[in-house]
Specification:
- The chain is α+β, with helices and mostly antiparallel strands and 912 residues long.
- The protein folds into four domains: 320 residues; 36 residues; 73 residues, no CATH class; 363 residues, no CATH class.
- 30% of the residues lie in helices and 18% in strands.
- A hairpin with a 1-residue loop joins strand 25 and strand 26.
- It starts with a strand and ends in an 8-residue tail after the last strand.
- Keywords: Nonsense-mediated mRNA decay.
- It comes from Culex quinquefasciatus (Southern house mosquito).
Length: 912
């Protein structure tokens, strides 16, 4: 029989059971727990107690396993606990967790390791008189403090409530008393780590142990793990004996196989000679255990002389001797004598041990176990929560970060806000949350933050966000509307009225009617001129009954529209007369009415060609007050044509269906909109405008400095058939001048007209300016005369959108065309066409006024044509572009060239 016996609970051999349970044998129970770094996980190696090194056995360690060790004639029962703090047990647990995917992060895994170790440690505290905490290193692991503190809380809050009841009901463990344990167990701290102190230097080792004892005692006292009353402490610390031991014997960490091979080689290499005491000692060290290769009789009779040496086993025996003699009472003098200490027989103790093992180890490991005792149930449910300080720490910092993030999100919230603002506020709150949150609870708290922010936004804070025709979202709360006009973005623009005299605030439009008609009707009430000025009426839908609706159609003319756009023609030649470029160097145009027509064309020629009867455009410059620089003068040939026999066949507009959008070149014939998007008013006589000072501020407000001048356009008109009205015109003209000087035939047929034009742009802040060309803003100095020619705007496409020269980098839109007609027996005609490009030049719409003929303006008058604020095609409104620059302005939309023309008028003396 080996000097020391062992077995693994609960498999106790019969022969060992008889030995332990004979004569009511009493034993001091010493628990061995802590950490180990060897594959066998046996922490008794450093005690020099084992006869066979654990490395030579084939037993695999397992979490929660308890192994009993005792000597036949000894008084100590060693309980060796294998826990998750043993390195190889932890490695096996980690391998299983990775394989099964149960633990998704290290924090959860570490929490599981700590919880399982704490269960075993609490169980050891209940069944042991002494506990040796083994540490492989030379430094105390302060992470034990949190486990000790948590176990003290668990014991006081739960264990002392349910355990006495369970022991009493089972008639087992009555010897444990009210404390439900043998005693307040003494803790011995055993450090296996080698220090720099040599084993021979005992004084330094003792000094190190004393200093470590003081530090450990202070830490345990500061955390209230031990108190003056040991009965109220988790465990006790001896007051007059050592409780810290540093192992200086290197054999505790030796590898027996490697050491045996080294010793064998050393013995074989030794020179031949007689055997001595050193050889005997060498041979004994080669044996795997004491007595190996010797007879049982010699082993029993030959006992080694016990040497007085420094060992952990000697220290334990001192404490055991005190336990048998007086028991442990480590309380202060005030509480001394009140502690509970009992040494039961092994049989009695073992029955209680089995019950406590089931309560503290087996039942918590069984996930399906249920108990009727509420205190025990609370213990099972809350054990992990209390022990797991890491998860609690990370949960608390996540909660703290979550609270700060919630406050940050709620701070200065508007009454309603958009999804973009919501996401921005959430990102700010989430950024603040991530400054604090750590650990496995981050994702769960992130979802809580997301749900919280979403709930606030969706519960009465959600903004409607329905976009306006200018792209601004509705600022009202989420609401259901019957009409788009119920939306409001809260954005206010500044715009002028139809005549341009009055500026006012306008709301961001949500319908074409709001943008192109309603605003101008409202502001007209504030304007002193709009409602009294002469105006041109544009065709609109006039229902014949109350039963009318918007037309539903598929734009079959879309392909025709694309082809006609590039040839500057309209699809319907009968309703829109084409502007064609003929072989003649002069541009010719046609005037149509229901009874007669006259052809009219414009052209610029560089050479005089008698065969083609062409004339070169002359350059003249004159003004009533000052002389302008020489500029190109355009010559217009007016031909008086014959009366047309056939009248144009015009389709009558529908009186039951209206056009839902705006009129454009491809709109179905016979459909008209419900309201006009254009406006043409006569501001008054031409004398309103003086070229020396520009447009007066009281007539047109909001113009930028130097950009309030119209451009002069000098046009030379030649009569090809003077007999129609030239004779009477000259007669009246000579009479006015009181002269009878005859003129040549050529000079009597040519007239020079001065027409003042202005293409006005207006930004959303109300800034207005005239442009002198497709890419140039007019810059007229104070007191000087603008010398730019109007021909640039007449014969070029003018962009609809252009960067405003103001500081705010707004986009200005072409909103008005100013025309000051001359005092001459001709009429200026206008036929505006706006081409809006949608992405490419192959996808565009040409918007028209809907009139079947060009508009004839009266002589010697100031006319203003107001263009639409919003454009809408058959598929819906066309959003104004963003990022307009001088270089790309013409790619978004243009007012097409060829808008202006000249027609003859009846001659009367009042015109001169």
């Amino acid at each position: 029989m080996n000097p020391i016996n062992s077995f693994i609970f609960p498999d106790i051999p019969k022969d060992l059971g008889k030995i332990l349970m004979k004569d009511d044998q009493q034993l001091i129970v010493v628990g061995i727990i802590g950490k180990s770094s060897t594959p066998d996980c046996n922490k008794l190696v450093g005690f020099n107690l084992l006869t066979i090194h654990p490395a030579l056995t084939d037993t695999d360690p397992r979490d929660g396993r308890v192994k009993f060790y005792f000597e036949n004639d000894g008084k100590i029962l060693y309980l060796h606990f294998e826990t998750t703090f043993d390195q190889h047990v932890m490695a096996d647990l980690l391998a299983k967790a990775v394989q099964t995917g149960i633990q998704d992060n290290f924090i959860n895994f570490n929490s599981t390791v700590r919880t399982r170790f704490a269960r075993v440690l609490l169980f050891a505290i209940q069944v042991c008189h002494m506990i040796v905490l083994v540490e492989p290193s030379s430094v105390f692991d302060t992470s034990y403090l949190s486990i000790f503190k948590s176990l003290k809380i668990i014991r006081e809050k739960y264990v002392l409530k349910f355990l006495p009841k369970l022991l009493k009901s089972s008639n087992l463990g009555n010897y444990m008393g009210k404390e439900a344990r043998l005693c307040s167990p003494r803790f011995i701290f055993f450090f296996e780590g080698t220090s720099n102190i040599k084993p021979e230097d005992v004084e330094k080792l003792d000094g190190l142990e004393c200093s470590v004892e003081e530090e450990i005692y202070k830490m345990l006292r500061n955390e209230f793990i031990i108190t003056n009353n040991s009965a109220m402490s988790l465990f006790s610390i001896p007051r007059s004996k050592k409780f810290v031991f540093y192992n200086s014997d290197k054999r505790a960490k030796s590898n027996p196989l490697a050491d045996s091979i080294d010793l064998l080689m050393k013995y074989l290499n030794k020179p031949a000679g007689g055997q001595n005491d050193d050889d005997e000692d060498l041979m004994s060290r080669l044996r795997p255990y004491d007595g190996y290769g010797m007879s049982a009789w010699s082993v029993g009779k030959s006992k080694r002389a016990e040497k007085k040496e420094r060992s952990i086993l000697a220290l334990l025996k001192e404490h055991v001797a005190e336990a048998f003699e007086h028991g442990f009472d480590d309380s202060a003098s005030k509480y001394r004598g009140r502690g509970h200490f009992v040494i039961p027989s092994f049989k009695t103790w073992y029955e209680g041990f089995k019950l406590l093992h089931k309560i503290f180890i087996d039942n918590p490991s069984n996930s399906s176990y249920e108990t009727n005792d509420p205190d025990y149930k609370a213990f099972l449910q809350n054990f992990h929560k209390i022990i797991d300080i890491d998860e609690r720490f990370f949960a608390e910092i996540c909660e703290h970060g979550l609270e700060l993030a919630m406050v940050n999100y709620k701070d200065m919230l508007p009454h309603h806000y958009s999804s973009t603002f919501h996401e921005k506020k959430y990102e700010q709150a989430h950024e603040l949350f991530t400054r604090y949150a750590r650990g496995p609870e981050v994702e769960r708290h992130e979802q809580k933050l997301k749900d919280y922010c979403d709930s606030i936004w969706l519960n009465g804070k959600q903004q409607c966000e329905y976009p306006s025709l200018r792209g601004n979202p509705c600022a009202l709360g989420k609401h259901k509307v019957k009409d788009p006009t119920e939306h409001s973005s809260g954005v206010i623009f500044v715009s002028a009225c139809n005549c341009g005299r009055t500026q006012g605030h306008r709301e961001d439009p949500y319908t074409i009617r709001q943008g192109n008609y309603d605003f101008y009707q409202i502001i007209a009430k504030s304007c002193s001129s709009c409602n009294v000025l002469e105006r041109v009426k544009f065709p609109v839908f006039e229902p014949s009954s109350n039963d009318f609706r918007a037309a539903e159609f598929i734009n079959k003319n879309l392909s025709n529209l694309m082809s006609f756009e590039h040839s500057n023609r309209t699809p319907d030649a009968s309703t829109h007369p084409p502007m064609t470029n003929e072989n003649s160097p002069h541009l010719s145009g046609s005037q149509k009415s229901q009874d007669s027509a006259s052809n009219l064309t414009f052209s610029m020629d560089e050479k005089r060609d008698e065969e083609n009867k062409s004339q070169k455009f002359g350059t003249q410059g004159e003004d009533e007050d000052e002389t302008l620089e020489q500029e190109t003068v355009n010559e217009i040939v007016i031909k008086v044509g014959e009366h047309s026999e056939d009248k144009a066949i015009l389709r009558q507009p529908s009186t039951t269906e209206y056009l839902p959008g705006m009129l454009h070149a491809a709109s179905p014939a016979g459909l008209l909109p419900q309201f006009p998007s254009w406006s043409l008013v006569c501001l008054g006589p031409s004398s309103i405008y003086t070229h020396n000072s520009g447009i007066p501020e009281h007539v047109q407000s909001g113009f930028l400095s130097g950009a309030n001048f119209l451009l002069p356009w000098d046009v030379s008109v030649r009569l090809e058939h003077a007999q129609s009205w030239a004779a009477s015109y000259e007669k009246i003209r000579n009479r006015k001048k009181n002269t009878s000087q005859p003129k040549s035939s050529e000079s009597s047929n040519t007239f020079t007209l001065k027409i003042f034009l202005g293409v006005e742009y207006e930004c959303l802040r109300g800034h207005r300016f005239i442009m002198s060309g497709p890419d140039t803003v007019l810059r007229g100095g104070s007191g000087s005369i603008v010398r730019d020619s109007g021909s640039k705007v007449v014969f070029n496409d003018m962009p609809i959108y252009f960067p405003c020269p103001c500081r705010s980098s707004n986009i200005a839109q072409l909103m008005r065309v100013h025309v000051v007609t001359p005092k001459a027996p001709v009429n200026v005609i206008v036929e505006p066409k706006v081409r809006i490009l949608q992405g490419t030049t192959q996808n565009c719409l040409t918007f028209t006024t809907g009139l079947t003929e060009p508009i004839k303006l009266s002589q010697s008058a100031y006319w203003i044509l107001r263009l639409p604020f919003i454009y809408e095609g058959d598929s819906g409104p066309l959003m104004p572009p963003a990022g307009v620059t001088v270089a790309n302005a013409a790619t978004h939309g243009v007012l097409m060239a060829g808008m202006f023309g000249i027609r003859e008028s009846e001659i009367s003396e009042e015109l001169l």
